[in-house]
Write a structure and sequence with these properties.
The complex is a heterotrimer of chains A (96), B (119) and C (146). Chain A starts with a helix and ends with a helix. Chain A is mainly α and 96 residues long. In chain A, helix 2 packs across helix 3 and helix 3 crosses helix 4. Chain A has one domain. Chain A has five helices and no strands. Chain B has 119 residues and is mainly α. Chain B has one domain: Helix Hairpins, CATH 1.10.287. Chain B is built from five helices and no strands. By secondary structure, chain C is mainly alpha-helical. Chain C has five helices and no strands. The chains are: A mainly alpha (96), B mainly alpha (119), C mainly alpha (146). Chains in contact: A-B, A-C, B-C. At the A-B interface, helix 1, helix 2, helix 3 and helix 4 of A face helix 1, helix 2 and helix 4 of B.
Chain lengths: 96, 119, 146
């Protein structure tokens, strides 16, 4: 291995060590258990508002249904992209 | 940092380790497919971290049947559902791009593809 | 590339396929009562088609579950989702607002709009995953046949 690649590996490992230290120092690992106020509202009023016992389904199909629509669109575009990228036509690919 | 190492939970430590492993794979590996695998590991680490944010000992799953009051936080789980699906989409598109790149340039090595050549 | 698997694998896959489809529909329809939902059931649906494809071979499966039919199913899934959203606006509430009755909590036909949306999301995800697999397999077959 040449000197340049050794220096690059050392730099990458240094970056990872700095990130690990930053993550463990900077995070707020408090002793008590946080819960957002929104989650308290969802747990208290979810079944009454929507009628669904599964709270996760009640969230992503009732309170936040627009995000689910965006995700369905992303899946649609991804399928379109894969079908376009993998449409192999012989005449076009040989003359690149 | 020692307090952070001592007070954090096991799931947080595992999630951050997965994140760092995935990041290393994404940056340092020369093969394109290994980079995509690193991206997947990174996504798994992030999903695990967010889902474990809502957990504490003694709480159960958020299915509110009769008589259940103490449940886990359901909001990060709903967000991570979307994240997982988008991770699948990113992997599918990245792998299709890699197939096209290989057909055109006959190489999967990043150094050869970006023109730096052999050292 | 091997076209068809052995008779044992083919028979087991044929017996497993209806069970997988039933399980996928159970996950989708009971999405608001027990863990599961549209996305989970859709992925199991796509996996059942992939299992059939890998064991039977491309010719028979692509004749039965055509590419164009799957594409139509996927488009129906997304468009109906948006259509139900606009129906919410027409009937007075916001986009994707709940206009069906809530019903008795804990039964299947309850929770208003959630069941309908789960169904369409499930078909969309199942068709999408199968379409990605079809595109990969067709590319592989054409690239090998040159």
């Amino acid at each position: 291995m040449s000197l340049k690649s050794v220096i690059r590996y050392i730099l990458v490992l240094l970056l990872l060590v700095v990130l690990a230290v930053a993550m463990f120092v900077g995070m707020d690992f408090g002793k008590e258990y946080h819960r957002r106020k929104v989650s308290d509202y969802y747990i208290a009023r979810g079944v009454k508002d929507t009628g669904a016992i599964n709270l996760v389904t009640a969230i992503y199909l009732n309170y936040r249904a627009y995000d689910t629509l965006g995700e369905a669109t992303v899946l649609f575009v991804a399928v379109l992209g894969v079908m376009y990228l993998l449409s192999y036509e012989k005449t076009r690919d040989e003359n690149s | 940092m020692i307090e952070g190492l001592r007070e954090s939970r096991v799931s947080d430590k595992i999630a951050l380790t997965l994140f760092l492993i995935g990041l290393y794979g994404l940056i340092a590996k020369k093969n394109l497919i290994k980079k995509v695998m690193g991206l997947n590991i990174l996504t798994s680490g992030i999903v695990l971290f967010f889902i474990s944010l809502g957990y504490e000992k003694g709480l159960t799953a958020p299915i509110m049947e009769k008589g259940i009051t103490d449940v886990v936080d359901p909001l990060p789980q709903a967000l991570m559902l979307t994240t997982i699906v988008i991770g699948v989409c990113i992997t599918a598109l990245a792998l299709s791009l890699i197939v096209r790149i290989y057909r055109r340039y006959s190489s999967l090595d990043v150094k050869i593809l970006t023109g730096e050549g052999d050292e | 590339m091997r076209r068809q698997e052995t008779k044992i694998v083919r028979n087991v896959a044929r017996k497993l396929f209806p069970v997988l489809v039933l399980f996928a529909f159970y996950l989708i329809i009971y999405g608001h009562i027990s863990p599961g939902g549209g996305f989970q059931g859709g992925v199991v649906l796509g996996s059942s088609l992939i299992l059939l494809y890998l064991s039977e071979g491309p010719e028979r499966v692509e004749k039965k579950f055509k590419n164009s039919q799957l594409a139509i199913l996927e488009a129906i899934g997304v468009l109906t989702f948006v259509g139900i959203g606009f129906l919410g606006i027409i009937l007075g509430k916001h986009f994707l607002g709940n206009f069906l009755p809530i019903g008795r909590v804990g039964m299947v036909p309850s929770a208003g709009l959630v069941l309908l949306l789960n169904l369409f999301i499930g078909t969309k995800v199942g068709a999408g995953i199968s379409l990605i697999f079809y595109a990969l397999m067709k590319f592989d077959r054409r690239a090998q046949g040159e």
